Amino acid sequence: MTKSTILVVEDEEAIRAMLLLVLEQAGFTAYAAGDAREAQAVLDQTPVDLILLDWMLPGISGAEWGRRLRKETAYQDLPIILLTARGEEEDKVRGFDVGVDDYMTKPFSPKELIARIRAVLRRSGKLSDAGQIVLGDMMLDAEQHRLSIGERQLEVSPTEFRLIQFFMTHPDKVYTRTQLLDQVWGRSVYIEERTVDVHIRRLRKILAEYGREELLQTVRGFGYRFSLTA
């Protein structure tokens, strides 16, 4: 099953290490950055499902970076949870004005943090209690390892299932072959980039049997995108 990916942006090393440990123990894939510049570099290379963003960062503040992200089309819908030591009601209002999805005041319990993350991911459509992802008439059930269009079940290999699962949890976004290899196959496995092309062709052939091959789109010079719209 493809894990949800969380980017932790926190300048205090001890807190950053604690958050990474908590997230990994909860089953998430986690990346870390110490400031907005490092965080942007991660985003440029790695698709993430949610950002844990500290308010007070060196250089550009977390609040300001979050505000900038919301102005970019690619990140307008990316869930953000703001972490801060500020506890006053006025500061919370300012946090939501930035466009964040939730707000947590330090100190907080790891259990509450994970619960908040899962709630935000569910609201954003990236996580469901039943392990199901639904896009249009397509439904993927991660727990039962089933992929269907309407009432018809598609027969796909385990690798193709992971690939379509990743695409369905990140619709309308373009990913390079390298990004897909990292997210679906894993960074510890060496596989040639053309392997991605092979599995894309297989998935398209399967989808074509149901008249849906247009869902997997090639973006020339960049990579691939999964979208319900042409």
UniProtKB/TrEMBL annotation:
SMART domains: REC, Trans_reg_C. The keyword Transport applies. It is found in: Cytoplasm. Residues 5-121 form the Response regulatory domain. GO terms for biological process: phosphate ion transport; regulation of DNA-templated transcription. This protein is a positive regulator for the phosphate regulon. Transcription of this operon is positively regulated by PhoB and PhoR when phosphate is limited. This is Phosphate regulon transcriptional regulatory protein PhoB. It comes from Methylomicrobium album BG8.
